[in-house]
Amino acid sequence: MDNQEILDNAPEGEDSDVVDITGAYFDEHCNHLNSEGFWSELNITPESPRSLSDIKRIVELESILALVKKDLLMRAEEDSEGFKVVDLSSSIWIKLKETLKEQEW
To answer: What is the pLDDT of residues 3-28, one digit of tens each?
Structure first.
């Protein structure tokens, strides 16, 4: 599964915090979502767990990068020295600023 599929298949609500390499979803207490769609309290440890909030952020940033790439490819021009040059549109700068505002540099 790719990151978007992981998010699309995640259970509704805020209960699920982690997905593991097998595609199983876990909450903060290591309960896992069983095949019947119920939370199980069996003592199962996630294999290579990944945070759903991190995956959501990655998907968000991937979509921004896709917009930037599309914008750059559409508007790139060659300068006198043969370099591809482009001015980013204001909508890209605004979206980048919104996306990165939580980051500390």
So the answer is: 999 999 888 776 679 999 988 999 88
